[in-house]
Here is the input.
Amino acid sequence: MRHLIDPLDFTREETDRLLALAGRIIEDPAAYAHRCDGRILATLFYEPSTRTRLSFESAMMRLGGKVLGFAGADSSSATKGESVADTARMVSAYADVIAMRHFKEGAPYVASRYAGVPVINAGDGGHNHPTQTLTDLLTILRCRGKIGGTTIGLCGDLKFGRTVHSLIKALARYEDINFVFISPEELKVPGYILKEVVEPSGHPYETVRTMEEVMPRLDILYMTRVQRERFFNEEDYVRLKDSFILTRDKLRTARQDLAVMHPLPRVNEIAADVDSDPRAKYFEQARNGVYVRMALILALLGIESDILEA
Ligand code: NCD
Here is the structure.
């Protein structure tokens, strides 16, 4: 049985087939409206979420399936001390596929070891967020017509931002990727990502302190929120929270075909006046999240049988 815990759990070819399926669903959603009739998705969310949980639920409903679950650790038996392993084992009797978000790195992996159904990591602590990565890849593909041959500036909290970690892993497998890391010293990309992913890929990368100095060269500007909930103290958060703010003015030197992305939620790192710029793609990106999750559910349930290898 296949799970999606780490973005590298799917090969590059499997990932490309999944993105192509998401594209077909966008073209003709009605053709998929009953593909999951009678199936159930469980959303086990131990940490707050708006987009990820709702887009999973919307995806399953748009496929004709049903959804059950909880939206906070407080409303589950976790408060009574139940382990993730036991919860996963049990929920496997209630649902055909599980999407789990957890504040502990590795919790969805543990769940996958005990579950009798496919488990999807919907974000584990500061570690990975593979379905956001699929959303991001689909957005890059639809904006640029390709994923390779891209200079991407990743800006903000590159230390705690799990979407950044997963996106770097996935992009490293494409040709001609140029990574530009834009962050304060305290929030730079973790050493393990550089050593285990970026350096072995052979792709060039640079680390800079301002977005202004690289703006004219970027194909993609991927903004992120400073991850307050993962800081050890409030003073550090307050000191760093306004490090990078994208304004309309800063976009003056950017290319006309730049795509500004953000996994959302934003706090203040993108000024509201950027929203009306045609280069702002973050709301379209959020919409893509539904289609990519529809494709993922179909692939993991084997309903679309030619996406994943056996
Ligand atoms: C992200 C997350 O949860 O990691 N949100 C999302 O899933 N779209 C990004 C964030 O919370 O900053």
